[in-house]
Amino acid sequence: DAKTTQPNSMESNEEEPVHLPCNHSTISGTDYIHWYRQLPSQGPEYVIHGLTSNVNNRMASLAIAEDRKSSTLILHRATLRDAAVYYCILRDRWGNNRLAFGKGNQVVVIP
Amino acid sequence: EAQVTQNPRYLITVTGKKLTVTCSQNMNHEYMSWYRQDPGLGLRQIYYSMNVEVTDKGDVPEGYKVSRKEKRNFPLILESPSPNQTSLYFCASSISDGEKLFFGSGTQLSVL
Lengths: 111, 112
Hints:
Radius of gyration of chain B: 13 Å
Helix content of chain A: under 10%
Largest sheet of chain A: 5 strands, mixed
Order of helices and strands of chain B: EEEEEEEEEEE
Strand order of the largest sheet of chain A: 1-9-8-3-4
Largest sheet of chain B: 7 strands, mixed
Radius of gyration of chain A: 13 Å
Structural class of chain A: mainly beta
Number of helices of chain B: 0
Number of strands of chain B: 11
Oligomer: heterodimer
Number of helices of chain A: 0
Structural class of chain B: mainly beta
Strand content of chain B: over 45%
Helix content of chain B: under 10%
């Protein structure tokens, strides 16, 4: 199964952009790149996903490297509510759905 | 409201007493999955189901059973719970492969 690698933790100042990296060097052509986050005492929530092109939504932007071996989740203006564990995972479009979330990246937002 | 509903929210039981954690989704999703979350280990997949009557093992299936008799329900069964199954459990669903996952609020299970 394709795996991802993320930093264990990161700090960011409030109201500044945050760039969360993710390496997935063994990604296959049919893998979507998904990002989820988990706030304290809650279930994970979807943030964004993409296949090849960069993606934007109201929560964040996803920048995907041209070779697709890495991606970056961008929070444009961090708020205290963005303090969470962020997970980068790969989802196979065609049936292999053994999803490995890993330990994620703990983002701390400093007021 | 579109949601994944897990019950119960908290459960304390004793070793060997069979239990079932229910999961239901109201979005007509094909894919459903169970995860457990333990400190320092992140989220680990227990079982998943691609559709009715189709289930498969995840990374940590030992000691668990699942069934998918109806599209909306995906119960997690612990036939003989042991203390090492004390954990926070999450159910999730998505419309199909590759699409975004919706998670339930979690079930905190303690096995004494």
